[in-house]
Amino acid sequence: MNAEFDHFAAWLATPLGRYVALSEAAWFERAAVDLFGYKAVQLELPQLDCLRSNRMPWRLQAGEAAGTQLKCTAHELPFDEQSLDLIALPHVLDFSPDPHAVLRECQRVLRPEGRLLITGFNPWSLWGLRRLKPNQDMPWKGNFVALPKLKDWLAELDLQSVNDEHLCYRPPIQRAGWLEKSRFFDQAGDRLWPAGGGVYCLEVVKRVRGMHVIEPQWRTVTVNQNAAVVVEKMRQQASKDRCK
Fold this sequence. Notes:
The protein is α/β, with parallel strands linked by helices. It contains 9 helices and 7 strands, in the order H-H-E-E-E-E-H-H-E-H-H-E-H-H-E-H. The chain has helices spanning 2-11, 15-32, 92-95, 99-109, 126-130, 147-156, 176-181, 184-192, 225-243; strands at 39-43, 58-63, 70-71, 84-90, 110-121, 159-167, 199-206. A 7-stranded mixed beta sheet has the order 3-2-1-4-5-7-6, sandwiched between helices. The protein is elongated, with a radius of gyration of 29 Å. GO terms for molecular function: methyltransferase activity.
């Protein structure tokens, strides 16, 4: 995955790549600014600082890509169970050989109520159609995991989507002039085709299943009338004995 992320990082320097990077940077800035905790980690793609707006005191960039602070694989993280409050995954699932394993590992290291911030390419968009052409290069040969499928994977791991957005409605053309002229696609697409952006963004929370409180099974006890008479006589006799 090292080489693929390095190639993807190089693609981000192209006109279309810069459009993606700027759009996602704005989303990560909005999504991460009000997330609180102590430890936050970004996996891969250090060229895009996903944690810039976050105020957690311990922030780290990890992964195999060049420039990361901690070398590791996304499906085998060197962190204890339930030790992180926030994990950012910028296109990690797109270029991982086993994206489901990445999610399982994130679920392991996240604290209860910890957050995942995920971005990925949307296969149900003009960008998804672009990847159907033969002999595609980066980034069109990525996984392009569909959002409904991703949400199913998350649900299996008790990871709940709390917010999703789509970005990048402009046609995937590597010409700066055409991209600039098609700016109106972003405003129109968000209103007319909200799920058709080339990139989806997902905020996810780790839920912990609550305990089921077992209430006592109260039952009505019928007092035998004869037994009640005997008890009353014993009470009266005890009272007489105290008066002697």
